[in-house]
Backbone:
């Protein structure tokens, strides 16, 4: 209340009162700090941010901050000016469990509300206006607008029935080139053979940025390809939100879910990583935290009716073992990594809007038993995988966490190394063997086709560790899986095969070759540049891998995104370290590295890194994409990774001329 | 496997050799680095009169190997040593963001890169979470070579602060913990 001192006539006093209450009213108004799906500002030249295929499901959400002392009473969403009428139980208003800070960094008010409408879809191609309106308890309303686009499908030809997407994690142009030089060799300037991916007739360049950075990680790196929308780093199949629960984020329907729903297609996921890892998970699981292993593996099984999951193979057995620590004494020790804090329970609006399983916090769950009860054959090594013939559904868990890399698996098969034994899983399949099995299972009784994702996961992991020999051989293994997919597509012409990467890793560069002197001196002087590099020559064994990578004049790799490392220019017997140090081997034995230490500190020379930490990092460089088979001609040009989703959609639903 | 067993039998002799080397290096004026102090401490601890009740335990004795189709199965030897003092040799796993209350001892030298990996890691199933008590304010410095540790064995599923669930833990002997931590102050 104002003290209106009647110095002047009453009229002035009333005017002052009116002005001040107007000021109060305009200062106090509810605010909508977030509208999902996110939009570009209207003036941006960039394409619409949120884009969907016709009928692709997604959630609408807004974060509303009402004035102090009030609350949000109701809300509604409208598309193109028409209120969206939600199906029963598919809306919610959440006022607890919100993040302490909003998207702009300011503190979340205590009465803020996150309002959602789940499982929306729109079949009409074109731009659409999206708006949300919220009603505050004192009668004020607030509205915020945005937009999204539905990308139409043109019916113009035969469709792709099967889609195989092979993803070399971290595999940039240099990684592909290095694999070609090693396994095919060059002479007089020409490659003496080509990688399978080199023979794909259509090539594109892909921009890999995430929703919140030019440098992505593997979660949006995969999700962007398979749901057509940008995601924040670490997030899979969801838009960011303001609640702390990692599984309640606004969802975006995945390619697998969309094609299963529309066309009855089945899903296969094959990886050399732990199966909970971001690349495999971002094909089927919706979470804003890629680290929530327990919930991620549970959701694979729980939502198989939505995704059509038929094949799941890789490492990560540790998530599938029951952790009964709370229940039994003495406690069971089976290596389980399950914990309630990384598990999920979904709110009712998601369950109603999407038809998902509700989930449960159950670290004591025996997930392998649940998979087999659901009709999946379970295999635990190469021998059992080969013996399983062609079951209807297949779960393969070949290692505790990530599988061992090709370099170590091949040396085990040759009898040169026991690294694989030391990890406890001596009989792990190669990626091409897993791919072959997955295709056989998926194409059995396959009236409606399938979508299969095959990941060469440790190209990236070994590039992070700057272990040159191991990531190059990972790329060779990956290309052998590419060949399996290509051979299938050659005899099944209604198949589209895409080879791509989620991002580039480590800024790998082929800087030259070593001088011919063996062993190479651990110094920059060893690097023969320009014509001094000649053509490094490796002898390839019958198993398709180099007899050894430590040849005179070997190809040398530098890293543009490197952390400190000690470089010997030689392969290491052990992943990340050589067992020769410090006891076996020649003098001088040195236990006193001058810096915080890394592999080969006693025998290599220090190359100072230019990023903090101990690992090389991802880069923002565009990555090459190769396409083969039906619809492949859609993949030329330079485009955003989200665009790949719409190209696949066109190939699968509308075909190409 | 055969190679590994031979290596471990050579270990005491080699550790003694290493200790004398590092002493020689010190006397020649080479600067003492944190790792050298830790190494000497570890070696000294190892070559001091052995604690009478510490049993040697090797990584390949943890679980029945190769690992079967389901989970890890602890051996009778592992189970019998719960709560008892043991002695182990292994490599400290290199972590991007080391925890301050524990480090991971592994049969192979491995690096756990947290940034793009989180729990999709290259840790073998048979690792020991070595707990430091009393907990240090800072993580112990990283030691790159073979490390010999003694302490009390503890079994069972336990949620660690870094997100892992450990099955096998070792409560590090306090003198050893102090020696390893002291390296950092040099």
Residues:
């Amino acid at each position: 209340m104002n003290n209106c001192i009647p110095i002047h006539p009453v009229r002035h006093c009333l005017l002052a009162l009116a002005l001040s209450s107007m000021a109060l009213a305009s200062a106090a108004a509810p605010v909508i700090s977030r509208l999902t799906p996110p939009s570009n500002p209207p003036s941006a030249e960039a394409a619409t941010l949120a884009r969907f295929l016709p009928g692709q499901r997604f959630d609408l959400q807004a974060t509303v901050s009402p004035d102090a002392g009030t609350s949000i009473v109701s809300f509604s969403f409208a598309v193109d000016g028409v209120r969206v009428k939600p199906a029963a139980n598919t809306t919610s208003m959440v006022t607890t469990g919100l993040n302490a800070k909003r998207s702009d960094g300011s503190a979340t008010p205590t009465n803020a509300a996150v309002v959602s409408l789940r499982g929306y879809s729109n079949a009409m191609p074109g731009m659409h206006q999206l708006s949300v309106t919220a009603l505050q308890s004192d009668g004020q309303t607030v509205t915020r607008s945005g937009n999204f686009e539905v990308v139409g499908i043109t019916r113009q030809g035969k469709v792709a029935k099967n889609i195989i997407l092979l993803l070399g994690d971290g595999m940039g142009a240099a990684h592909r080139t290095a694999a070609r030089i090693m396994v095919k060799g060059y002479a007089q300037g020409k490659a003496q053979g080509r990688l399978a991916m080199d023979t794909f007739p259509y090539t594109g360049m892909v921009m890999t940025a995430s929703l919140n950075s030019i440098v992505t990680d593997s979660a949006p790196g995969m999700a962007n390809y398979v749901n057509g929308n940008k995601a924040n780093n670490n997030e899979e199949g969801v838009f960011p939100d303001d609640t702390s629960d990692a599984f309640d984020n606004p969802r975006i329907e995945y390619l697998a879910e969309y094609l299963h729903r529309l066309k009855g297609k089945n899903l296969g996921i094959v990886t050399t990583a732990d199966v909970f890892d971001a690349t495999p998970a971002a094909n089927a699981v919706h979470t804003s935290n890629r680290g929530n292993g327990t919930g991620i593996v549970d959701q694979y099984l729980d939502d198989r009716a939505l995704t059509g999951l038929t094949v799941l193979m890789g490492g990560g057995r540790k998530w599938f073992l029951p952790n009964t620590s709370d229940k039994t004494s003495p406690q069971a020790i089976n290596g389980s990594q399950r914990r309630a804090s990384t598990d999920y329970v979904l709110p009712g609006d998601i369950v109603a809007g999407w038809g998902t399983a509700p989930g449960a916090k159950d670290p004591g769950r025996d997930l392998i038993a649940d998979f087999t009860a659901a009709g999946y054959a379970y295999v635990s090594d190469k021998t059992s995988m080969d013996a399983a013939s062609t079951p209807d559904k297949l779960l393969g868990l070949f290692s505790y966490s990530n599988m061992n890399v090709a370099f170590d698996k091949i040396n085990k098969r040759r009898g040169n190394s026991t690294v694989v034994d030391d990890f406890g899983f001596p009989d792990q399949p190669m990626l091409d063997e897993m791919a072959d099995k997955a295709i056989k299972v998926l194409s059995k009784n396959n009236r409606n086709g399938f979508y299969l994702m095959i990941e060469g996961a440790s190209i990236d992991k070994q590039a992070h560790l700057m272990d040159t020999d191991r990531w190059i051989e990972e790329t060779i293994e990956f290309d052998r899986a590419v060949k399996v997919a290509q051979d299938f597509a050659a005899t099944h012409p209604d198949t589209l095969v895409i080879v791509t990467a989620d991002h580039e890793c480590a800024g790998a560069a082929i800087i030259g070759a070593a001088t011919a002197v063996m062993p190479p001196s651990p110094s920059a002087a060893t690097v023969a540049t320009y014509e001094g590099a000649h053509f490094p020559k490796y002898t390839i064994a019958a198993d398709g891998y180099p007899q050894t990578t430590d040849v005179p004049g070997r190809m040398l790799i530098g890293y543009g995104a490197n952390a400190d490392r000690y470089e010997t220019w030689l392969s290491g017997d052990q992943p990340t370290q050589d067992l020769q140090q410090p006891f076996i081997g020649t003098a001088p034995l040195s236990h006193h590295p001058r810096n915080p230490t890394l592999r080969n500190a006693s025998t290599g020379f220090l190359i100072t890194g230019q990023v903090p930490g101990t690992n090389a990092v991802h880069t923002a460089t565009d990555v090459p994409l190769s396409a083969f088979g039906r619809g492949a001609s859609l993949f030329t040009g330079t485009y955003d990774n989200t665009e790949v989703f719409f190209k696949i959609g066109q190939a699968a639903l509308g075909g190409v001329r | 496997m055969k190679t590994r067993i031979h290596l471990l039998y050579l270990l005491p002799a080699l550790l003694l050799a290493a200790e004398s080397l590092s002493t020689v290096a010190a006397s020649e004026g080479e600067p003492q680095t944190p790792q050298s102090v830790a190494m000497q401490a570890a070696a000294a601890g190892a070559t001091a009169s052995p604690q009478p009740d510490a049993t040697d335990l090797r990584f390949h004795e943890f679980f029945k190997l190769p690992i079967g189709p389901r989970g890890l199965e602890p051996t009778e030897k592992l189970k019998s040593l719960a709560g008892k003092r043991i002695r182990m040799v292994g490599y400290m796993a290199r972590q991007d963001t080391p925890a301050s209350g524990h480090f991971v001892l592994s049969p192979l030298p491995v690096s756990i890169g947290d940034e793009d990996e989180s729990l999709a890691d290259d840790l073998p199933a048979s690792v020991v979470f070595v707990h430091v008590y009393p907990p240090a304010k800072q993580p112990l410095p990283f030691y790159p070579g073979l490390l010999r540790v003694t302490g009390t064995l503890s079994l069972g599923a336990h949620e660690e602060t870094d997100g892992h669930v450990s099955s096998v833990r070792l409560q590090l002997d306090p003198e050893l913990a102090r020696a390893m931590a002291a390296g950092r102050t040099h």
